[in-house]
Amino acid sequence: MDRNKAAYLLIGIIAILSISLAAHYSGLLNGTFANADAVLSVTVINCIATAVLASVAFVNMTEAKKMRSEMARPRLALEPSFFEYDKDGDVSGFNCLNLCNGGAVARDVEIDIHNGEKISFLYASSIGTNDRVQILNGKSSDFAGVIDVIVRYKNMYNKSILEDLSMSLKSINEAKRKLVPVHDMS
Questions:
Q1: Any residues with CB less than 8 A from the CB of 103 and at least 6 apart, and which?
Q2: Coil, strand or helix: which one is 9?
Q3: What is the pTM of this model?
Q4: Does domain 76-174 have CATH number 1.10.10?
């Protein structure tokens, strides 16, 4: 059960128990109460019901805020391109590495690239949805180890976000996995 369902279930159980206890102790369930007690009992039950509704509204607002935040978040990924092929037709390496965005616009993008001993610092004013920024190019032998890319940017709500993306070609080769080209179908 996810957290949202658990929170609603807990709030519902607390509400039912609270209203039942208030009704029982105020005499609403057995009908032995005076008019003044009835007003007090109904007031208590209304207060509990209002508190429960406020709790449910708070949980809904919190979840809606999380969803809005996720929808406004860029989706960054590393994409190798310009592949080299060996004599068997298998990919033996690549000559270019792109930073791709599949989500919302990323603004004021600072890109720090650590490729072995080499460190590069790049800047892009924005990377829109489905945009690619070429961050590395060269011989495939230049991309032999771990490529670590640290990206700092702002989302559409001007919130600063830091992402650490990496690609370990060494572990790909050790696992005897082959790189496969990705083709755009649009």
A1: 73, 74, 75, 76, 129
A2: helix
A3: 0.62
A4: no
